[in-house]
Amino acid sequence: MKAVLISIHPQWCERIALCDKTLEVRKTSPKLESPFRCYIYQTKKKWPYKLLSKLPSFAWVETVIFGHGKVIGEFICDVIVPISVKYSDVNSHVALREFPLTCLTDKQIIDYLGNGVTGYGWHISNLKIYEKPLRLDNFFHACDKPSEANCSVCEETGKDRCKQLRHPPQSWCYVMEVNCNG
Questions:
Q1: 52-61, 127-136, 154-163: the lowest-pLDDT one
Q2: H-run or E-run covering 80
Q3: Residue 95 burial class via C-beta count within 10 angstroms: exposed 0-12, middle 13-18, buried 19 and up
Q4: Where are the domains of the chain?
Q5: Which CATH architecture is the domain 2-176 placed in?
Q6: Alpha helices (H) in the chain, listed in sequence order
Q7: What is the pLDDT, as a whole number, of residue 1?
Q8: Quick one: which of 47, 69, 87, 180 could link to 10 by a disulfide (CB 3.0–4.6 Å)?
């Protein structure tokens, strides 16, 4: 079944793991009907964990802290909502109000999406942080053909899955669901 692998910077993974951030802002959204599964790939960017390091030692805390460059968990995206922020004078009048579900300010949303540009808020539900992070090579690009017809990669490999993931997506990509017992 088709799912999504989404790349998220460590500071936002920390906020997601703590359930502070329940809406992930993106410029695009998948052409999948909600609900669908999203796997969280934590980027390799260095981050001094401020909040998680104060928690008692749960197995998943180590996953987030040491999971750079790996898939640290998953969630169900049960709804996608349009998001847009617009100011007439972006340089001087942008409020630094935080949108609580996103953990982003007006200015951060405008800097990312553009002034008045509509983006998408992916709602995070049923969050699961793995006890052990998964490597990217556990994931395969989703086949673009219906289940009864194989694509050329499936035919070449003799498998009903497409090419194994070698590099993380810039933002997100379609993948095949995997059995994660983390």
A1: 154-163
A2: strand 70-83
A3: exposed
A4: 2-176
A5: Roll (2.30)
A6: 10-17, 59-66, 90-93, 106-113, 152-157
A7: 78
A8: 47
